[in-house]
């Protein structure tokens, strides 16, 4: 049988991939935050500048969490690749 170049590549374990390692803390923090959010079910009064709103605390926490995630997504910058720099 003829071997292709794909046969010679080593298989990288799933948890040792850089993308997965960066994703693990995000998943853990998100899971803890969601448990905290949905455990707080009491109704609260929230003042938004002028109007006052009565809503479940989990709803307010979920909105705040979602806005925080959006803010994080908009401010993240991708790092330049380490190998893309030209040697001097």
Explain what you see.
The structure is a single chain. The protein is mainly alpha-helical and 88 residues long. Helices cover 51% and strands 11% of the residues. It has helices at 5-8, 18-39, 57-75, and strands at 43-47, 52-56. It has a two-stranded antiparallel ribbon. Helix 2 (18-39) packs antiparallel against helix 3. The longest helix has 22 residues, at 18-39. The model has no long low-confidence stretch (mean pLDDT 78).
Fold topology:
Elements: H1 5-8, H2 18-39, E1 43-47, E2 52-56, H3 57-75
Antiparallel strand pairs: 1-2
Helix pairs in contact: 2-3
Q: What's the Cα radius of gyration? A: 22 Å
- Overall SS class: mainly alpha
Mean pLDDT across all amino acids? 78
| Lateral strand order in the biggest sheet | 1-2
DSSP strand content? 5-15%
Query: How many E strands?
Result: 2
The tally of helices reads: 3
Query: Biggest sheet: strands, sense, closure?
Result: 2 strands, antiparallel
Fraction in helix: 40-55%
Amino- and carboxy-terminal Cα gap: 45 Å
- Unreliable segments (pLDDT under 50, ≥5 consecutive)? none
- Sketch the topology as an H/E string, one letter per element: HHEEH
Taken from the alpha-carbon principal axes, the silhouette is elongated
């Amino acid at each position: 049988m003829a071997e292709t170049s794909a046969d010679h590549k080593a298989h990288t374990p799933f948890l040792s991939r850089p993308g997965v390692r960066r994703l693990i803390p995000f998943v853990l923090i998100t899971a803890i935050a969601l448990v905290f959010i949905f455990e707080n079910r009491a109704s609260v009064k929230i003042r938004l500048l002028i109007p006052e709103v009565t809503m479940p605390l989990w709803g307010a926490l979920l909105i705040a969490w979602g806005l925080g995630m959006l803010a994080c997504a908009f401010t993240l910058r991708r790092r330049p690749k380490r190998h893309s720099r030209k040697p001097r």
